[in-house]
Amino acid sequence: MGVSKKQVRVGMIGYKFMGKAHSHAYRDLPFFFDTDVVPVQQALAGRDREGVEQAATQWGWASTETDWRRLLEREDIDLIDIVTPNHLHAEMAIAAAEAGKHVICEKPLAMSVDEARRMVEAVQKAGTVHMLCHNYRFAPAVQFAKKLIEEGRLGRIYHIRGQYLQDWIMDPQFPLVWRLRKEVTGSGALGDVGAHILDLARFLVGEFQEVSGMMETFIRERPLGEMSGGLNARAEAGNRGEVDVDDAAVFMARFENGALGVFEATRFAGGNRNGNRFEINGEKGSIRWDLENMNNLEVYLEEDEPGLQGFRTINCTEEHHPYGAAYWPSGHIIGYEHTFINLFSELMKGIADGSSPAPNFEDGLRNQLVLAAVEKSSRSGQWIKVSDLNPVTRR
Ligand SMILES: NC(=O)c1ccc[n+]([C@@H]2O[C@H](COP(=O)([O-])OP(=O)(O)OC[C@H]3O[C@@H](n4cnc5c(N)ncnc54)[C@H](O)[C@@H]3O)[C@@H](O)[C@H]2O)c1
Description:
It contains 10 helices and 17 strands. The chain has helices at about 15-30, 50-60, 70-75, 90-100, 115-125, 140-150, 180-185, 190-205, 335-355, 360-380, and strands spanning about 5-15, 35-45, 65, 80, 100-105, 130, 155-165, 210-215, 220-230, 230-240, 250-255, 260-265, 275-280, 285-290, 295-300, 310-315, 385. Strand 2 (about 35-45), helix 2 (about 50-60) and strand 3 form a beta-alpha-beta unit. The termini are far apart. The model has no long low-confidence stretch (mean pLDDT about 95). Nicotinamide-adenine-dinucleotide binds near residues 13, 14 and 83. Nicotinamide-adenine-dinucleotide (NAD) binds next to helix 1 and strand 9.
């Protein structure tokens, strides 16, 4: 790392699953990317002193706090990174902006459209840099898909089929962790994994116009318990509680550009550990991507010679592919953690030039509007126009 580079001193709140992913990305970023500003892991905040100190030591944080608000008072912190459950995002991000800090927040941005709107207002008023951690946009194959679409190689887009399929809560004895409690998470599979496929759809196809959705909770009561890191959990003996969020959400959508979308977000797709996939069909070609095979993009082009037409598999690790030059020689693949490193490289560029790279809080608000429209449609059985839920466009 160049010692003369401007440093962005990070204060991160939370230190489990995403805490580990973000800590690793800060450490590796200056190793792979030559950005003008570099992150410094200044302080890690958590409620439990022993836990936060252990994580700070293992992951390379210089200091710790047991009250996240202390990070906002510290003058040696420039960027607040929020990796806590969803019900804390708004309070923490708004307070960080009011303290004049840049903010990066995990997805989904908020619990509701109203919270998301207040978060956008806070960062706009503060004039600080903001970003939302939809890391899958930053897989090289997804960035390459975006490039192909922007170059017009697929022509007019007709369809997107997006799926985020997991199976980690199928066991009825899996406990009622925060991700299954509405007051902490907002919604279930929809906001947790559905938010990611919505972000990919907005990134690759465009803005949603209207949606029609269904949501279902298959297991309505579970033992109480807590997340213990990653997607693992510990059950408490005895007590049980009600699941008040969706286990699965499916929805159809019409986009402003006339494309049609079909989406599925579920934690009940047995055998699918983390199946985040899409297929996009346009007038001149199609593309397919699957996170579990994340370096590859399947591409079909109508212009190919008859007889040779079909999906080809492009391993997006060449130096001409997005982020390819930062890593290894062609075919020497990268992984899940690199999506975060790539995203943080954009955040560092944003902080260097005072801009908020997409996806930022404004993207988070647009995403939240679609999530809210799917929920409303699921309750009413009606198609819902996304703009009807936006307090600004409704007038
Ligand atoms: N980008 C992605 O792909 C991705 C993946 C997983 C989770 N997430 C998001 O990241 C966020 C965190 O999820 P996770 O899986 O890391 O959760 P987790 O349960 O593994 O970790 C949450 C952390 O927040 C801390 N915390 C909870 N309440 C707190 C409080 N009041 N003050 C300070 N710290 C507190 C916990 O102690 C823990 O360290 C969520 O918003 C989730 O939706 C994003």
